[in-house]
Amino acid sequence: MMDLNWYAVLVAVIALLLWIIDRKTKQLIELPGPRPLPFVGNILHLTNIKEVLPKFLMFMRTYGDNYKLKFGNKTFIQICDAELVKKVVNSNNFNEKSEFYSFLHSWLGTGLLTSSGQKWQNHRKIITPTFHFQILENFIPTFATKSDILVEKLSAFCGKGDFDISQHILLCTLDIICETAMGTSMNIQNDSSSPYVKAVHNMREIFMRRTLSPVKQFQIFYQFSKDYKLEKESLDILHSTTMNVIRKRKELLDNTVDTVPDRKTAFLDTLLNNGLDLEDIKNEVDTFMFEGHDTTGSGLYFILYCLSIYPNIQEMVYEEQQCIYGKTSNKTTLQNLLSMNYLEKVIKESMRLYPPVPTFARKIINDYHYNSNVLAKGGTAAIFSFGIHRNSRYFPNPEEFDPERFTVENSMTRPQYAYIPFSAGPRNCIGQKFAMLEMKVVISKLVRNYKFLPCPGFKPVLIPDIVLKSDNGIRLKIVKRE
């Protein structure tokens, strides 16, 4: 009974504090939005994660391009306005990540995704040269080899009805990131039940459940939840995998007489050779292992879904590949990849409709005035790329799949920050050139070998699981090309 009374008092005190904070900040927030309830805010609008993105779009169309939400005592300014995006991503007033990213610290520590200030600047400066085009060119053979394995694995499904291709894609992208950036061959595509992929899935879901829970946002309550136990189990897998990757690479470098590192593994070599301590190296490796396979994987399987339901566009992609490779040459080169102009437009249009990161958030360091509104200090500026990309102000008939939006002429008519699949500003995705080359190689290999067909009645159920996911997978059919 004493424990129950203590718990009730604690809850009452927290509720009072939330009410005081809510009253204090309400006077500063002038943007419209759905009416929040006391203490829980708008969380009850978003209890079903499958409804989050549709409701966010509905709010955009109801309240305007910028609107406010409350998650517990946390104020979110949801931004779907390209002009405000430009100001946010380029302003020192928003150069810190939202406090919600702290839910990822147990996994990613303070790597590039979650760090800020001088540490972020130093690490970004160290890592940036490893993504130079001359270095990326050396990764292309590995992209091609791993894509060939994927082609072989998918042959088992050829002509045998629909199947979920998403997990096969994720295993391929994890295989690629391990061997290219980390210098470790893990033969992941031959392990269809990869514990690493499952652990990443668990951590993404836990992050979203914490974000949308007024109780689990507080560590004092979260540590008694089932998610906390699941997080610990998942972290054991993730961190042991990371340390194994670092150990193998360090042993190889220590035993190599040649002092010039293999340029194909420049990322991890750079970390090991720049005086970073082991914890910082682990954080960056965890970050790139996650972002390097999960975001690219999301981009890839939504591209394949789009190709399956737009056969005319798929055939145009195939025809371009035939023009580039003909009937004899099969070697993947940088020159070939750079000449895939139509495929690049298809990739960009797919990432418009299905951006791998549907939203990214920054902390509002000081009150910020925009037009007649105030973005209050301590709140979160949430840049809703999924909504910006479906904003009819920038993309007429936004639900229509049209690669011609990305001709040079059409792209010049849009605001620069209306299309941000890789974020924008100084904190944009450092690996976007890597990702684009990888996606081109994988799609090129797959389209030249298979024709992708739709699964009747299937439509992906989109969820913002840190990375954009389909809750019901990506189901399609494949047949062998002649």
Secondary-structure map with pairings?
Elements: H1 2-26, H2 52-63, E1 66-71, E2 74-79, H3 82-89, H4 105-108, H5 117-127, H6 133-136, H7 140-154, E3 163-164, H8 166-180, H9 195-211, H10 219-222, H11 226-254, H12 266-272, H13 278-309, H14 311-325, H15 334-338, H16 341-353, E4 360-363, E5 368-370, E6 373-375, E7 380-383, H17 385-388, H18 408-412, H19 432-449, E8 450-454, E9 462-465, E10 467-470, E11 475-480
Parallel strand pairs: 2-7
Antiparallel strand pairs: 1-2, 3-11, 4-7, 5-6, 8-11, 9-10
Structural class: alpha+beta
Rg, Cα atoms, Å: 23 Å
Sheet with the most strands: spatial strand order:
1-2-7-4
Number of strands: 11
Order of helices and strands: HHEEHHHHHEHHHHHHHHHEEEEHHHEEEE
Q: Give the rounded overall mean pLDDT.
A: 88
Classify the helix fraction into a percent range: 40-55%
Tally of contiguous helical segments: 19
Uncertain parts: 24-29
Assigned CATH class: Mainly Alpha
Number of domains: 1
**Shape summary:** globular
Strand content: 5-15%
> What is the CATH architecture annotation?
Orthogonal Bundle
Distance N terminus to C terminus? 74 Å
Give the CATH superfamily. Answer: Cytochrome P450
- Major sheet description: 4 strands, mixed
CATH topology: Cytochrome p450
Task: Explain briefly what this protein structure is.
The protein is α+β, with helices and mostly antiparallel strands. It has helices at 2-26, 52-63, 82-89, 105-108, 117-127, 133-136, 140-154, 166-180, 195-211, 219-222, 226-254, 266-272, 278-309, 311-325, 334-338, 341-353, 385-388, 408-412, 432-449, and strands at 66-71, 74-79, 163-164, 360-363, 368-370, 373-375, 380-383, 450-454, 462-465, 467-470, 475-480. A hairpin with a 2-residue loop joins strand 1 (66-71) and strand 2.
